[in-house]
Design a protein that fits this description.
Order of helices and strands of chain A: HHHEEHEEHEE
Strand order of the largest sheet of chain A: 3-4-2-5
CATH topology of one domain in chain B: Alpha-Beta Plaits
Helix content of chain A: 25-40%
Number of helices of chain A: 5
Mean pLDDT of chain B: 87
Shape of chain B: elongated
Radius of gyration of chain A: 20 Å
Number of helices of chain B: 5
Mean pLDDT of chain A: 89
CATH superfamily of the largest domain in chain A: Lrp/AsnC effector binding domain/regulation of amino acid metabolism (RAM) domain
Number of strands of chain A: 6
Oligomer: heterodimer
Distance between the termini of chain A: 13 Å
Chain lengths: 159, 163
Amino acid sequence: MDKAPISMDDIDRAIVVHLRRNGRATNQQIADQLSLTAATVSARIRRMEEADALRVVAVSDFSAHGYNVLLEIAIEVDGRPASEVAEALTLLPEVFAVHLVTGRYDIDILVALHDFEELSDLMMNKLARIGGIRSLMPAIAIDVVKYEFDVAPIEAKGM
Amino acid sequence: MAGPQLDDFDRQLIEVLGRDARISNRKIAADLGVTEGTVRGRIRRLQQERLIAFTALTSLGLENPTKLAFIGVQADVGSVKEIAARIAELAQITGVLITMGRSNIIAICLFDKLEQLVEIASDQILAMPGVHHVETSIAVKTYKYNARIVKITGAGKVVDNGD
C-alpha cells in the first residue's frame, strides 16, 4: 500500500533526534526540551507514524531469540521471474530480509538460524522447493562489526 | 552457545515493545496482568543485558538516502579485522559483516546517487591496503525487511521513562 509521502520540518526532525536517544521519553519530556506542548509532540509523532515515516520500537538482539547463526545468501534465478522467487522467500520465517539486486546474482537474502543443524532443513525442505532457484552462494557471518538499525524501508513486509 | 535466559514474560515484552515502544508501563502492566514495577524492572534488565534497545526508525527516502547496496570485499585474511573496522568508520556504511564465503567482508551502504556508491566502493574501500576486489550489488526492490531483530553493539544504555 503506497502512502502519500510527507515532508518533515525542523520540529519533526528535532523530535526524531530525541526519540533516537530515548524512544521511551514521554511526550511531556520531549515537549519540555523543545519548548512545545505535549499535545503537539503527540500529534507530530502520530502524523509521522501514520505516513510510515517513523516507527518508535524496541529492537531485540539476535541472541534474545536464540539465533546464533547469521547467513547472507546470494541467489541466482533461472526460468522464473526473480520477483516471484523473492515473494516465495518472504514466506520463510528464518529469512529476515529479501532484496532484488543488480549484479552477478538476482536476489540477496539474510537468514538467521538457531544452530547449523537447521541449515539442512532450510536447504532440503524449504529452499529446494522454491522453483526457479538456480544456485545459492552463501556467506556465513563470523563477526558483526557494525549494524545500525535506525533507517529501514518501513513499508516493506516484515516491518 | 548458551543463550540468555528469557521467560515467556520477557518474550511478551519484546513483542509488545517491538510493535510500539511508546506504550506506557502502566498500559503494558494492565495488558499483561502484572505490576508497573515488574514491567519497569524487566525492561531495565533486558536493556542492561543488551537484548533490547529502543530506537526511532525512519524510512529510507524521507530524511535518509534512498538506496541500499551490498558491497562484497575481498581482503587479506590476515588484516580482515582492521579493514572491516576501517570500512565501518565510513559515514554511509550502516552495516559491516566479516564473512566466510565469496568475499570476506560484506558492507551495507546507503546512498542517493550512483556516483556516491562508486566513490565509496572504488575510491575509498578498494584503495585501502589489503583490499583486492570489491563487488557492488544494488538493491532495486525490497520484499522483506525485519529491522526489529538486530545485533545490538555499543554500550547497553538504559533509558526508560515509560511511566
